[in-house]
């Protein structure tokens, strides 16, 4: 079945780095745009980044631009989010999500999320 | 960019209909037919309920419908059921090629 599984979350100190991964299965990964979305504890959803099906275009929220990098390896059906210069306000559950088209448009399949905590 | 505006909470009795609004600008909701709606139960990942303003994914009940007028999109749930109690979020494509969420609406089924 169609599935997204995130990994790589954990506790990191302010200013530190972390790389999240999202393993996709059950669909042709290389045909769809992919997103990262986050949700701080007790707060709403925040779109973080998008990458086109072939990696040719990437878009970021202003809050992470210059610090986070989205990438993908279509040969491994895997999406990544490299997070640098982490701040306390980056603490959240991070979801990867599939776009129903080449996007950016919407999020039709979501992973279960991975928690990132930025704290000293 | 500021979040799209949603009411913080709405409520209704079983069997009734409710509508959740999502207000943006001509640079997002009003400028594109790329508005989507998500249902999120506590501790769970969000679920797509409506995409491209009014399209329902396979498997989503036809009690859920979407529409748009000007800079405001709406999600209507008819025949309210207990399991509809959840948080609901709207999202829209923007002129910056980004996506923007609403602040979320907590639906309580009385």
Topology summary:
The complex is a heterodimer of chains A (120) and B (110).
Chain A: E1 3-7, E2 10-12, E3 18-25, E4 34-39, E5 45-51, E6 58-60, E7 68-73, E8 78-83, E9 92-98, E10 109-110, E11 114-118
Parallel strand pairs in A: 2-11
Antiparallel strand pairs in A: 1-3, 3-8, 4-5, 4-9, 5-6, 7-8, 9-10, 9-11
Chain B: E1 9-12, E2 18-23, E3 35-40, E4 47-50, E5 64-69, E6 72-77, E7 86-93, E8 99-101, E9 105-109
Parallel strand pairs in B: 1-9
Antiparallel strand pairs in B: 2-6, 3-4, 3-7, 5-6, 7-8, 7-9
Textual characterization of the structure:
The complex is a heterodimer of chains A (120) and B (110). Chain A is mainly beta. Helices cover 0% and strands 48% of the residues of chain A. Chain A has no helices and 11 strands. In chain A, strands 2, 4, 5, 6, 9, 10 and 11 form a 7-stranded mixed β-sheet that branches. Chain A has a 4-stranded antiparallel β-sheet with strand order 1-3-8-7, with no helix packed on it. The model of chain A has no long low-confidence stretch (mean pLDDT 97). Chain B is mainly β and 110 residues long. Helices cover 0% and strands 44% of the residues of chain B. In chain B, strands 1, 3, 4, 7, 8 and 9 form a 6-stranded mixed β-sheet that branches. Chain B is globular. The A-B interface holds A 35, 37, 44-47, 50, 57, 59-62, 95, 100, 104-108, 110-113 and B 1, 3, 34, 36, 38, 40, 45-48, 51-52, 57, 87, 89, 91, 93, 96-104.
